Amino acid sequence: MNTFGRIFRVSMLGESHGECVGALIDGVPAGIPISPDSLLPDLARRKSGAKGTTTRKEADVPRIMSGVFKGKTTGAPILMLIDNKDIDSGKYEALKNTPRPGHADMAVWQKFSGFADYRGGGHFSGRLTAALVCAGSVARRMLAESGVKVEAAVVEIGGAAGDKAIGEALDAAIQAGDSLGGIVECRASGVPAGLGEPFFDSAESLIAHAAFSIPAIKGIEFGAGFAGARMRGSECNDAILDESGRTATNNAGGINGGITNGNELVFRVAVKPTASIAKEGKTVDLETGKSVPITVSGRHDACVALRVPVVLEAVAAIVLADLMIIEQRIPRVEKAAVKKDKAG
Amino acid sequence: MNTFGRIFRVSMLGESHGECVGALIDGVPAGIPISPDSLLPDLARRKSGAKGTTTRKEADVPRIMSGVFKGKTTGAPILMLIDNKDIDSGKYEALKNTPRPGHADMAVWQKFSGFADYRGGGHFSGRLTAALVCAGSVARRMLAESGVKVEAAVVEIGGAAGDKAIGEALDAAIQAGDSLGGIVECRASGVPAGLGEPFFDSAESLIAHAAFSIPAIKGIEFGAGFAGARMRGSECNDAILDESGRTATNNAGGINGGITNGNELVFRVAVKPTASIAKEGKTVDLETGKSVPITVSGRHDACVALRVPVVLEAVAAIVLADLMIIEQRIPRVEKAAVKKDKAG
Amino acid sequence: MNTFGRIFRVSMLGESHGECVGALIDGVPAGIPISPDSLLPDLARRKSGAKGTTTRKEADVPRIMSGVFKGKTTGAPILMLIDNKDIDSGKYEALKNTPRPGHADMAVWQKFSGFADYRGGGHFSGRLTAALVCAGSVARRMLAESGVKVEAAVVEIGGAAGDKAIGEALDAAIQAGDSLGGIVECRASGVPAGLGEPFFDSAESLIAHAAFSIPAIKGIEFGAGFAGARMRGSECNDAILDESGRTATNNAGGINGGITNGNELVFRVAVKPTASIAKEGKTVDLETGKSVPITVSGRHDACVALRVPVVLEAVAAIVLADLMIIEQRIPRVEKAAVKKDKAG
Amino acid sequence: MNTFGRIFRVSMLGESHGECVGALIDGVPAGIPISPDSLLPDLARRKSGAKGTTTRKEADVPRIMSGVFKGKTTGAPILMLIDNKDIDSGKYEALKNTPRPGHADMAVWQKFSGFADYRGGGHFSGRLTAALVCAGSVARRMLAESGVKVEAAVVEIGGAAGDKAIGEALDAAIQAGDSLGGIVECRASGVPAGLGEPFFDSAESLIAHAAFSIPAIKGIEFGAGFAGARMRGSECNDAILDESGRTATNNAGGINGGITNGNELVFRVAVKPTASIAKEGKTVDLETGKSVPITVSGRHDACVALRVPVVLEAVAAIVLADLMIIEQRIPRVEKAAVKKDKAG
Fold first, then answer.
1. A123·B198 Cβ contact <8 A
2. What is the number of CB-based contacts under 8 A between chain A and chain B?
3. Which member of C233, C235, C242 has the closest CB to residue D274?
4. C115 and A79: CB-CB below 8 Å?
5. Residue D63: closest CA among chain B residues belongs to which residue?
6. What tens digit of pLDDT does each residue of C199-258 get?
7. What is the pLDDT of residue A96?
8. Residue B344 pLDDT grade (very low, low, confident, very high; cuts 50, 70, 90)
9. What's the rounded Cα separation, in Å, for the pair B282 and B295?
């Protein structure tokens, strides 16, 4: 379903080539200063333009339709919309009956009996992550007040690490009309111990749940992750140093038993290579039932992983903000705002 | 929170050294034959006894306290309890003030200000997975009627694959008073296309959410997963072969855009090495605040991954059963049962 | 929280004097024809203009921002917005520090420490029911296919029944600068037996939950309701006439044990008199702490109950549509649409 | 579904003539002293024995199966079971095919195709309210720490008020082999302003939702309720007396716009007459399809309303406890307990 969270709740909407994409967020404390401008820095980081990203250019200036009054959140639901303007749906009509390999097209066609908006992936497009980023900015602002900071970065593209190697890998893939995947790492500092709700809402469960909503994510690991599965216990256990729970190593990635332990939160996601490629693939024609070749000539990222970091930060911030509210570490009305207003 | 699912819902309870562990399941169709006996085969697979598993021996005969009448489910909530009998809590009193490295002890102590049941990990013990397995058996029974089958197996222990190599790795670790992690793979066949609910309840999101509730899981990947992040698009895209959506390869692991595509569902989890080891580690004494050495001499699995397969099947079955009900592919009253009852 | 429902889910947003009010609805089956025009008849019934209703005039033409493609629902979330245009916020600035008796002003001021949008009741305004009516229209369309029909009507205004008596009561109240309450009855025909989910989601629980979200509702009763509390069992029990469950009387209002019994669904709500009146009341000045007189001179309904019927139908339809989906009596893709599309 | 609440969550289970009834409660703060004994006073108030109540006698000593350690809550889910011992199911076998008028039998038979446990109403029996009362006791204990107190009382039986008139009405009904309904009023003092979550989780919505889960409840009204629908605004509006929001009258019943306003919370429910009566009624034989007379000779309350007060308190306390946690007015670890433990 399109809603995530328990108190701080995000509901998603929109299509790649429809009117807009957007997020409706509920449970935001009252008194937080939010404006369209305050959302722009995160949105800018998500934008395309760099090598390996699509040529679709959207202004991406969000409109805040509700829940903010006199520049501050009111406690009512906040609707944030981002219009779709640079739409070029022409080529999608041709692809209507030939589901693109690696895309959701075929599964979606089966689920919704052909009624889904197929233009640019419709509701299943990476375009929706622009709205996620807006919701993430609000969550991040809520966390900042409590000293929690979330940062993600690309650590690997097409198996290559380091700017130079990554640049070369991208060049080679682009030239081949092909695409690359990558690995993105996210770290959150200042996370207090005690976040996560047993049995099912472990910190890992919630972060993974939200992260797999990002298109193209196919794996996630916390701390040592898959490498930890090859360690011995004596190597993997993190020695506890003091009463605060600080550990000598961080193979747990900041989470034990599903509960944050006060150390840095660390996790990585695997981003598959962009499915849309100029190289010929193979699919079926849904009208004739025959096998046909397919090349996808639209405007696409050669490597969508490059744009994932700020989106990954967004989902991590969304999860942490909700857990912080549940744990009563973020109050329901921003205290700083109340004080300031009273002083002023 | 302790409940998972939308229509078919599982709520967990219990502690390692308390009265019992259990699961309360709601939304089970009426008319399904369920008895304590029908749960035993799955529970037997979870049991210890083999090399690398704990010497704690529990009869693990579940009691069904509600929701079943004349041998069939009634549509009302089903409470399944498994008593704890082979309890040896003595040593835990000594560990009360020295949180075990790699365990939830320290995080839980901080979250609940010392009120949690610390004996054997309390509510955070792997013991609760016995109840998960019971719920999984019911889910599995629901799926069977629709031709969906879920099977998991250990693919790697301590970096070793194959029975001989794994056996040697276990021997070495046990002799060293140490423990090993492992990787477990789960496959589901017969899964129809169309399961998964955008935006947030992608099939991957829900499976990952449930899987990270299993203690010791630190990573999950679908299809090609992390290896896919190192592929090119032309290699990773699965060619679509026919109108049913069958693909030539299965790098997607049976899920595109969060929706099952009708191919086999495939995912793997990383299980960290058992945290309880005889080798000396380091922790803090919560009473004195001083750093102290710690060895954990209780009865433990040298490799908990060995007992994960049936638990992983359980969570996969729980997720799939709920998605099948939501997609109206499992009816709310078992049709076969109705027919049989009418005939009889 | 701002979301209601389990599969068919409605999320609300907006303020009386903000940009817009709206509803984001999820879980709508794919293939249902929906257009802004299709929502107008219900919206028209909610409109003001008749005696006893406000002079605020809104065009109330909804915009569908997502989830509909080529005139039909896609299965993705549907955002419906109604712009606020006839806004006259001037007088609310004056009322900012003097919470209006009978309104949410004071409670909201305390809950959100003064950050809420106070203009025209903000998020707590009856204006939001326009969006509820849109969601209700979609629900009603879903139900129509299954033969379920929901109709509500005013049965009493200010204690008077019948058009003439009601007209006179309204005239008298308007002349006195006062307002009236009323009682509205809702009936749903064609409701199948078996809707309602024990223990907590009884049909009555869900309808009451949704109905009390409508501003000014202060009571609800099903079937004989409060009058039934004064009957004897022999009088109140509805004799069962045949295997379909048809009963001779309908004191149960179509619900037994929280489950619909196949008879007509009947319930009534108590609508309190409009709180905004020209007659002088008493409140406190939040800046000075002093008691002050207050008259509310804005544009208001003299009797909000007159506009409640279509809103009550909306919430009833929303609840029934969700229960019908859960009971698998409304499919997830509209069958008629699929057939028609295949034929065409 | 069988779960209610957002943070403090109650899940119900059990049948009238099965092993037990019970409640699984999650989200209870750690550190609260709870024991079976502490639940007895509330359970005693629910017990039968007085004039007009059933002769079924249950010891009703609850067992706490999880979530409590060393006499205090741990933060983990608490399972409370009450065994069924005084079971006399014989007569129900005879009633199996003749659904009792006024009962859930017929609706349940249709919903679950005959698989439901029909003995004594099964999962739809008033017997489950014993478990609700246990959960309510825990909620009440949580509220007490914050000065919130919930009390309910019978205000009317069979239309009669006052002990003498009620006694006479009961005698007459019992002699006639008939039953009576009644009206029960609940008041909560010490409720802070600001509880209730717009748009859908108004305080009234949640209380009504929970109250309609109690068998036999057919109406609810807050403050002036249905009488308020016959008032004018000038009469119904509660004058605000001071900055705390205290009002001169309380026609709002302590709730405005769905948010508590700091005044006493007041609501009333309509309880229908017990459906089981010795007087002859009319039903259908499900095997033959023929109309047949029916008398219900089991052990029943002549007036179930007499036993409702403590149950109504329980659901009110459950709702208020959850809203208090959401509003962060009840901490997640009991502060008094932490202090005392540190001192001790």
1. yes
2. 373
3. C233
4. no
5. B19
6. 999 999 999 999 999 999 999 999 999 999 999 999 999 999 999 999 999 999 999 999
7. 87
8. very low
9. 9
Looking at the complex, report in whole angstroms how far the Cα of residue D294 sits from the nearest Cα belonging to chain C: 10
Other chains touching C, judged by 3 or more CB pairs under 8 Å: A, B, D
The pLDDT value recorded for residue C338 is 66
What does the DSSP 8-state code read for residue D273? P
Please classify residue C243 by burial: count the beta carbons closer than 10 Å to its beta carbon, then call 0-12 exposed, 13-18 middle and 19+ buried. middle
Q: In the predicted model, is pLDDT for residue A344 greater than 50?
A: no
Q: Which amino acid is at C300?
A: H
**Rounded Cα gap, residues B68 and B137, in angstroms:** 15
| Residue-range definition of the domain harbouring residue D222 | 3-326
- Chain C: give the shortest CA distance to residue B212, in Å: 24
pLDDT score at A50: 78
For every residue of A155-178, DSSP letters joined together read: EEETTB-SHHHHHHHHHHHHHTT-
Would you state the pLDDT for residue A335?
A: 77
Split at pLDDT 50, 70, 90, the class of C8 is: very high
The β-bridge relationship of strands C281-284 and C291-294 is antiparallel
Per-residue DSSP letters for A209-270?
HHHTTSTTEEEEEETTHHHHTTSBHHHHSPPB-STT--BSS-TTTTEETTEE-SSPEEEEEE
How many Å lie between the alpha carbon of D291 and the closest alpha carbon of chain C? 7
pLDDT digits (tens, 9 = 90+) for B269-301: 999 999 999 999 999 999 999 999 999 876 778
How many CB atoms neighbour CB D219 within 10 A? 32
Task: List C-alpha distances in Å: D278 to C60, C151, D103, D105, D275.
Answer: 57, 37, 14, 17, 10
Tokens of D62: 């609850």
Which one of D181, D239, D277 has the shortest CB-CB distance to C282? D239
ipTM of the predicted assembly exceeds 0.95: yes
Q: Flag whether A205 is in a domain.
A: yes
Of A208-212, A339-343, B303-307, D105-109, least confident by mean pLDDT is: A339-343
Q: Which residues of chain D have pLDDT under 50?
A: 344
Decide if A148 is inside a domain.
Answer: yes
- Residue A340: band (very low, low, confident or very high) from pLDDT cuts 50, 70, 90: low
Contact B10, D24 (CB under 8 A): no
Nearest residue on chain C to D239, judged by CA atoms?
C282
User: Quick one: which of B256, B262, B220 has its CA closest to B241?
Assistant: B262
In a domain, C335, yes or no: no
How far is Cα D303 from Cα D157, in angstroms, rounded to an integer?
A: 8
Cα separation, D213 vs A59, whole angstroms: 51
Nearest to B66 among D14, D69, D116 (CB): D14
Give the pLDDT confidence of A104-119 residue by residue, as tens digits.
999 999 999 999 999 9
Q: Which residue has the higher pLDDT, C95 or A227?
A: A227
Return the half-sphere exposure (C-beta side, CA atoms, 13 A cut-off) of residue D11. Answer: 28
Coil/strand/helix, residue D44: helix
pTM: predicted TM-score of the whole model, two decimal places: 0.97
Which residues 6+ apart lie within 8 Å of A90 measured at CB? none
CB contact (8 A) between residue B15 and residue D66: yes
Tokens of C69: 């493609």
Would residue B232 count as lying in a domain? yes
Ranges A29-38, C84-93, C274-283, D137-146: which has the least confidence: C84-93
3-state secondary structure D157-172: ECCECCHHHHHHHHHH
* Mean pLDDT value across residues B7-25: 97
Exposed e or buried b for every residue in D41-65, given b needs 16+ CB within 10 A? ebbeebbbeeebbbebebebebebb
B49-68 in b/e form (b: 16+ CB < 10 A) is eeebbbebebebebebbbbb
Q: How many domains are there within chain B?
A: 1
Which subunits count as partners of chain A given 3+ CB pairs below 8 Å?
Answer: B, C, D
Q: What's B282's domain CATH number?
A: 3.60.150.10
